[in-house]
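note to self: dont lose this again. the chain is below, predicted strucutre after it. 469 aa total, dont forget to put it in the shared folder this time
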Amino acid sequence: MIDASSNAGTYELGWHDEIDYAYTAGRGLDEHHIRDLSARKGESADVLERRLTAFRAFRRMPMPTWGASGELDRIDFDDLRYYVRATSADVRDWNEVPITIKGTFERLGLPQAEESVLDGVSAQYDSEVVYHRNRAELDRLGVIFTDMDTAVREHWDLVGRYLGTVVPFDDNKFAALNSAVWSGGSFLYVPPGVRVERPLQAYFRINAERLGQFERTLVVVGEGAFVHYIDSCSAATSAPTTLHAGVIEVVVKAGARCRVTGLQNWSKNVYNLVTKRAVAYEDATMEWTDGNIGAGLTMNYPSVMLVGAGAHGEVLSVGYAGQGQYQDTGAKMYHLAPSTTSLVTSKGISRDGGRSTYRGVVHVARGARQARSFVRCDSLILDPISRADTYPAIEVEEFDAHIGHEATVSRVNEDQLFYMMSRGLDEEEAMSMLVAGFIEPIVRQLPLACAGEINRLISLDMAAAGAVG
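---
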């Protein structure tokens, strides 16, 4: 399925940096590697034991049978490197970042975003965070936003309390792998009652070939607090397979609200296999917003466990599958308490032989009275050789529940296309405008910078490959 050559002419972020790495692990994975990784990070015996337990689970667990599982047998775990460090330490001063790495993040626009719209920023390059800085106001408010390695060393009282409680180490094979070899990622803690008005962002970049990137992110939002966390990513284009298996777990306490926005723009040689899950307590709101643009194979199903009465969960998702891409995305909502609500809105676009799939679960447990859920998934196919699928699962164990589901699969409206071309647009411009209108209900709810980036990336890919394949 994954064909790196399909990046040609369409993927503008695929440059490769020639750098001298501070440390590069050999290929393959065993307990010696786990112990060496933990020792290099200066971790406690407790953290090491967690890693080893997860690694043993990974070895005995079978490959997943859900989602696009038939593609996963192509992953050669023995051909991957599980830890690559570009620098000797992360820094707080942008001028101390090595010039080559700094140039990459400048081309990606991170310093400009930090200056104009963000309250904090973190930059991970391969296996480690190389730069991290927050605005001073966060410290005054008691907000902790740092890389996960630092958090384990300096805030274990908080991290240890929540790490692995939302996504257990044996949740699935790739979550077990992440729990064994995680490196980098973010830890975000917002105290009760605190509102962080501007987003916090982490950017993840893969440069090394045959790399597995396994960041671990933990977000804890205190009672009545609010925060918006953004994670974005890209990768150098290379022929060998690259694996990304990140984990994001979120705890939203009573009356709090959390939004996590992901803009996934990996190169097409990347297997993007992530586990994203949140738990929402009484009257809490959890919002996942995803733009799945890149990667050869994506399996991404953000989940919300609605465990408190009145909790609300939302997933807004856009998936774009071009040549050589399989976007298997969706959402999972688990209503486990009374008066919980959920809303899922998914838009999938397929072009030039790509495949987009919505795969979702709505589960209403016994006792979750007056639960309400609505799912809408729409797919747009731009040519005769592409494909779109919808696989919803609805499991209701409570009589007093209201569940709605709508799904559409459609081709481009030829009358609309003709009308727009008759007004002076060429076919490529008209098609791009129709696609922009199709995803507009989701894009308008994104931060302005993310919305513009999604539209730009889709338009770029369509222009480079030909709007109608």
